[in-house]
Amino acid sequence: MPGWIKPVFYTIVMLGVVQSVLAQGTSWPAIVETALAAADEWCAPTGRNQACYGNFALDAEPQSTVTTFEFTQEGDIVDVSNLQTLRSTPMDEESGTWGVALLRLQANLPGTLPGQNVTFLLFGDAEMTNAVEEGSEEYTPMQAFFLRTAIGDSLCEEAPDSGLLVQTPEGVGEVAFNINSVDVSMGSTVYFRAEPEGEMIVSTVEGSAFLQVGDETFPVIAGTGVRVPIGRDLLPNGRPLAPRAYEESDVNPLPMNLLPRRIRINAPLTTDQLLDLQTRIQNNQPLCGDTGLPKCPEEEGRLRDLLLNEAPDVECRTRPGADESIRPACNDASRPDDNGRLDFRPDGTPPSKPDGERPREGSAPNSPPADDATPEAAPPPSKPEGEPRPGGNN
Q1: Which residues, 6 or more positions from 366, have their beta carbon under 8 angstroms from its beta carbon?
Q2: Pseudo-torsion of CA 228, 231, 236, 238, nearest 10°?
Q3: Which end of the chain is more exposed for a tag (fewer CB within 10 A), N or C?
Q4: Of all residues in the chain, what percent carry a pLDDT higher than 90?
Q5: Strands, DSSP E only, in the chain?
Q6: Which is more confident, 151 or 347?
Q7: Residue 82 phi, psi (nearest 5)
């Protein structure tokens, strides 16, 4: 079959599907199914550090120095280094549309693994804004960005709430990037939502993830979610709440078929498992190995050593870059502070809270302007945070 026939044939088929959906009253499940099928077909050629227009409707703004930029229809692919803002649109039942974009990013993966990429899937009422300065040698393209989404906007069980779904490739351990000035380290599949003047909700559906907010590190293992208070400027303005079990209705409709690794969504942790998790966090015990927790790595490498304070010669915390992952501060990790929290600050660093008025030192570049009208959230009552973490996906 000549190469030009396939896209023409597929376009005809998709138009027929869309017409069928419209004839059926544009039900949410049918719209989602059509959108995901289109994105799966159109975005197959997407390469490293590229974004693909998966399904109508999307809106994109290029960097100010970019003169040639085409991202207006399904199948369009652009380099994320040329991208400033990417918006997907919410479900529209009348037109039968639902915005879907797919990005394959390098994050902090080495350049010697060009076939390995982190998959970012943006869908519904959601927006990503690049926070990496042009020509940056410290961050790879779009390794730091701001995320805004609607929360709780799905009107049926079969359609997910708007958000960003991220999955790391097989066999690379952890990857590092920055969302809303929160350092994320993950070897897993994670669902992100972020509502201005509300919360950034981070739900791990497989594996484990870790958030660094201010000078504290918070685990988010499969079956749980962590809520980070954020201001109008999307920056953290309070201490994250303790991990809690997510709702199955929030994660079961997620578009997993567009991710490269096939996984099974972890069941929400039970009350007993959550209590065990909190005890392990408080006692600085491994967050792996038991029922409901991720599998422990066969070899406890540099990451585990850091959290157990067995590698004092290693710098406590580094920013995400092309060749380095986030490594949380780890000195005196075995000694709780006056509030019972495990201290992950370097020696001599005074305690501090996340600052909603300005990005902290070492946070992502190009932070949005301060929002003086956003009050700082009071620290919520929670059990101690801090842990030796398990490894990434295996």
Answers
A1: 130, 131, 132, 133, 144
A2: -70
A3: N
A4: 56
A5: 50-55, 58-62, 77-79, 83-88, 100-105, 118-123, 126-130, 144-149, 163-167, 175-179, 182-194, 199-213, 216-221, 224-229, 244-245
A6: 151
A7: -95, 0
Q: What is the pLDDT of residue 2?
A: 53
What's the CA gap between 19 and 24, in Å, rounded?
9
Task: State the maximum Cα–Cα separation within the chain, in Å, rounded to a whole number.
Answer: 71
Looking at residue 374, its pLDDT comes to 39
The pLDDT value given to residue 368: 52
Structure tokens at 370: 């301060």
CA distance to 31, 92, 321, per residue, from 25 (Å)? 10, 12, 48
Three-state SS at 87: strand
